[in-house]
Structure formats: structure tokens, C-alpha cells
Predict the 3D structure of the following.
Amino acid sequence: MNYGEVLRKTWDISWRNKGLWLLGILAGCSASGRGNFGTSTSGARSYSFDSPDFGDFGPIQEEVFIPIFLGLLCLGLIVALVVFVLGVIGQGGLIAGFKRADDGANVSFSEAFGDGLQSFWKLAGIRILFFVAGIVIVLGLILGTILVGVATFGIGLLCLIPLICLLIPIGLGVDSYIILTMVASVEEELGVVDSFGRSWTTLKENLGPIVVMILILIVGFGILGLLIAVPFIALGFPFIAGAIIGTDAALISGIAITLLCATVAIPLLVVAYGLLTTYATGAWTLTYRRLNGTMGAELPAS
């Protein structure tokens, strides 16, 4: 496989069809959009704010606290669901958009978004199945680790260190399998089960090229990630400076400056991550097509 051609054409398609960037932002947000909502109880029937610092606030009774908590919980679940849905549509739209563009067509946001809608249920099923399987595997690993630790009085845990190190390449392989499965579903219009089988065949028969592509993307995205992270690390400097000075005014000013900069920086981070998601999805889409014999067409003149 010509890796240079895949990477270069992915960039050309991304640059010519900027509507795909919006889909990349949607898909990128969903990658970190899973919410974990935990609860804790202390057995108390009320939550007292009788301290003088709280002025006239009295106890917050359970009949007041529970509706507020449930309302916030429902709001969080709704937001997580919306982010998940938009993320799946964005992922499907990206794959379909790169497929169209690789065949020589110009792609608009509305066209790609519509393609993402058509593929929604299949891609949602794929992601949910992977998510459930991941939970089962993680719980199994945790239970196995506990049993080994108890049975060997902790000594056996040392033997698990090499196995834990293997989780990194295994995780990268699983991540590649997930995106290849979604690409197979959109590219060949397959159902959920058939997509798993098709992507597994592609992975098994082309393990070497896929490993090379994984390494290329890891190195490239690692460098870009470091460059993107530098200004965000600098966000903490005003707070650190205020803490070092030690006065209340300096500390409050440092916190205020950090929060103000964060309100600008966080949206930029979301956009940057969306652009990386756009490119990564495009690279895997073209990789899948090349490995299965689809060479694509010349891009139209800009």
C-alpha cells in the first residue's frame, strides 16, 4: 500500500471539503462524551448548612435535594445521549464523505450529514457492542487481578505487569478494529454482524500495513498533540504565580485569568481535536479502500 498517497490524499480531501471539519468536531466530541454518574449516600436525612458562613440557609431536606439531584442526573444523561447521537452521525458522515471524495466528488456538509443519518443505527449498534464488550472484559480483568492477588498474597500481581504492558498495543489494535468495522459498514453497506466479519478479514489479511498505519498516526498525532498541549499547559501559570506570591489578591487574580483563558482555549481544543478526528477517520477510510482494491479517482480541480 502506498502510505504517502493515502496520507496526502486524506489531507487534500480534508482541505477541499471543509464541511467535513464540522463532522469531525461532532465525532471528536463523542469520543470523550461518555458520562459516568455516581451517587454516594451517608444515611443522613438532611444536608445542613447551619454554619454562619451560609447566612440564612437552613437544612436542605431530602424532598428538596432528591428532585434537584434527579433533575441534574436526567440533564446529564440527555446531554450524553445527544452528544453520542451527534458523534455517531458525525463519524458516519465522515466515512461516507471521504468515500465520495475519494471517488472524485465534491462533498458538502449536508450530503455527508445525510449519509451519516442513514448509517446511524448500524454504527450505533457497532459502538454499543464494543462498549458492552469492553465493560465485560474490564470487569473480568479486575476480578481476575483480585483473585490472583488474594490467592498469591499479592506476589502474583508482579507477574501481571508484563500483561498490563500488553494492554497498550492490544488497545491500539482494538481501536483500529473499531474504525475499520465502521468503515466496512458504510463503505460496503453491510449490517452490524457482517461488518464485524468483513473488518476482521481485512485486519487479518493485511496486518502488516495496518500496523504501519497505526504507527504513522501515533507518531504524527503524538507530535501534534504535544504542540497543541503546550499553550494549554501554560494556562495554569497565572494560578501558579498567584499561589507562589501568596496574597489573596494575587491568588484570586491568577484564578480569574486562568478561567478567562480557559473559556477561550477549551473551544479551540475541541476544534483542534475535531480536525485530528477528521484526518484520522479519512486516513482509515482510504486505508480500508486501498487494502480492499479501491484505488479512488483523481480529485476535481479546485
